[in-house]
Amino acid sequence: MDATELSAPLRAPAHPLAKPGYGKRSAPDQLPRTGTDFAHLRTREAAIAAYIDRLSEGSAIGYKALAANVADYGQQACAKSLKFLSEAGHLRLVKEHLAVADNSLRWVTRTYFSRTSRDEAWWKAYVESLRGVDLTELRRAAEPVPEPEPVPVPVPEPVPEPVPKPVPKPVSEPVRRPVREPQPAPSLAYRTLARLGRTEPRMTLSAAECAALEALAAQWLARGATPDHLTRSLTTGLPHPLHSPGAIARKRLESKMPPEPYQEPAHITRAVMLCIGCEEPETVVTLIRGVCVDCREEMEAYDAAEEKGRVIDAVPDTFRAVPARREVARRADELRAAAGLKSRPIPRPIHGEFVRPLPRRAE
Length: 363
What we know:
The protein is an alpha+beta fold and 363 residues long. Among the domains are: 3-134 and 267-288, no CATH class; 188-255, no CATH class. It has helices at 3-6, 43-54, 63-69, 75-87, 120-129, 135-142, 188-194, 196-199, 207-222, 227-235, 245-255, 293-307, 325-338, and strands spanning 23-26, 91-100, 105-113, 266-274, 287-288, 291-292, 348-350, 353-355. Strand 7 (348-350) and strand 8 (353-355) form a beta hairpin. It is extended.
């Protein structure tokens, strides 16, 4: 095994994609992938950075999506790791203002990732360069260019050699049967056509009909149709009587073909960098290597606690399965006071449970 095989990208597991237009974006001009790209990071940050590096464009790389797919770390650990990756120059959160061809405007948030560590000046210059970028041309440039098919070279036909006469085998030797090679698995389009009879018995197709209609069904799936959508389109509203299911399927596949996916051309009118922790824009807070001052103080406290071997107990409500009851009661009292009603006493904790104190008896 040579060095190139050691540095080859690993295949990432099934990871959810973000909404169209959001998610991961790879920064340009990165160095080739090696086995020491994240050696300067701690073990946790290096593992999460290597995982993000293997993900495809548009993948959801928020802390919740990472925690759901990275078995070793939870939401809080992933959220902290994203901050430290921004501190190390591998990550930036950018909010882009898009102007679409239909005169509509919208904001999208993208996370730009760079395998190669970048300094603050490089990230600022790159975010400023996003203004005016035509996303239509950018998507077109990112599409893989099909390689030209090789031109067939005529090969002279070999001169057939004389076939020797077969030597009769002894009777005692068993006859060996040729081993059949495994057949390739049928495509999703073929399987969808073959299962039509389970939904509508009158639309049961033969193997020859499935093979003849496979290309049309594959076009449906390539244009965004699901197998269920394809099945419903071929099995609902059938005529009575139905004489030729193959002809009906071909006519519907051709006449009801979904349109090709179309994306409105858009260009970026403004790009603003956000804090990777609280997502406040740089126009509101001061960012230092992609992290605001308040989140940076939290990172420093987290580092100090980790060096002493203890874990910070303060957990935000967004990370709790059930919010703290004390906070709910306090918020309810604030709302009652704003409405001019009398506030209720806040429950006091006893052995981890909250009990409401009994009212005083009139003396």
